[in-house]
Amino acid sequence: METHIYDLFLLAIPVACIAWTVTKEEVFKEPREFCIEKSKDCKNLFQRKFFYLFTCEYCFSHYITILLLVMTNYKMLYPDWRGYVISGFSIVWVANVYMSLYNIIRVDLKKEKIRAAKEESSLKDN
């Protein structure tokens, strides 16, 4: 069981990394903006939901997890399909905890940069 828990926290790292990068980072800004537009403008419900998937880190993490489970054959608790279901939702949950923590850290860093810039500009004014 210890190995499964270790693997769970390890496998959630690439899921979080990929989901965050595709849905939040500047490198995928143009495709993401295209997907945002399509998720609002498409007439077909399936098309809107398909494009929305690339704009939501939580939604996208489910699909990355499915791909990872197929690649690794990782199962928790049960050796059959139930093991895939349990491990899939577990990986998604841990990956989203990682992304939430990362977001909190980034916000704190941005706040500190703004405070430092304000202090620097006030020192220059004096």
Would you kindly provide a written description of the structure presented here, covering whatever features stand out?
The chain has helices at residues 2-24, 29-41, 45-52, 57-72, 81-125. By secondary structure, the chain is mainly α. The chain has one domain (2-97). The protein is flat.
Oligomer class: single chain
| Uncertain ranges | none
How many separate helices?
Answer: 5
Q: Identify the overall geometry.
A: flat
Mean pLDDT score: 92
Number of DSSP E strands: 0
Please indicate the count of domains. Answer: 1
Beta-strand level of the residues, as a percent range? under 5%
Structural class: mainly alpha
Give the helix level as a range of percent: over 70%
Rg from C-alpha positions? Answer: 19 Å
Our measurement of the CA-to-CA distance between the termini, rounded to an integer number of angstroms, reads 62 Å
Report the major sheet: none
**What string, H for helix and E for strand, traces the elements in order?**
HHHHH
Summarize the structure.
The protein is mainly α. The protein has helices spanning 2-24, 29-41, 45-52, 57-72, 81-125.
Features:
mainly alpha, 5 helices, 126 residues
Topology summary:
Elements (H helix, E strand, L loop, with lengths): L1 H23 L4 H13 L3 H8 L4 H16 L8 H45 L1
Helix pairs in contact: 1-4, 1-5, 2-3, 4-5
